[in-house]
Amino acid sequence: MNEISEYVARVAEHFRSELGPSLVEVYKLGSLAHGGFSAIYSDIDVGLLLNCQEPPSDFAALVIQAKSLHPELGKKLSVFWGNPALSWGRLPVIDRLDLLDHGLPLLGDHKANFPRPTALEIRHALRESIEKSWQPRIPELQALTRLEAKDRKPYVRAILYAARLIFTWDKLVVDSNDRAVEYLHQVQPPGLELEPIDRALACRRDQCSVEEVFALRADLNRQVQSALSYISKRT
After folding, report:
1. What are the φ/ψ torsions at residue 214 (nearest 5 degrees)?
2. How far apart (Å, rounded) are the C-alpha atoms in residues 135 and 192?
3. Parallel, antiparallel, or unpaired for β 77-82 and 44-50?
């Protein structure tokens, strides 16, 4: 983690140098902030708040430069950014929740403070994530007869997404995979197999291999439908 912390600190300083007074703060987000970071399966999530009338015209180039600060870790860097009014940038609803509740300032002590997304906004964002990200990958992943290197991260994420979806749908907050899986065991959604989810979490913790997760041959279509059935009754 020392190398990752050093890289993230360099990313923060890079944005401070390039953006100057328009930069309010840089934050650690995601599992770097709320726990459960996996060197294999996690992205390096960073959030920026800016205080300027318009988005910087060269921001895409600044992100490319931030990625180039480390030849390997830069491939995992995801930058979320916007102004406190949330009128432009790339700061989706679920990441706003993460920033509000877990964002760790890297340059000072400025705590993010902007309107919290409503339950309606959060659940709409989750539905979009299901339709655009989760469900479209399921047929391909379900059809796999063996895992290639490129499939490992998407497969583990697809298994764990049911936990993250149900946790955020019910709680209207974002937290670690550990907390989400713990919550699944409390609510026991009908039809949802918990063993593959438990094993995927163990995989993120380096307690088993992804091949051991795959060996369970979880019915991903059933997992999706069980999760959807659960949330449809929790509106």
Report:
1. -65, -35
2. 16
3. parallel
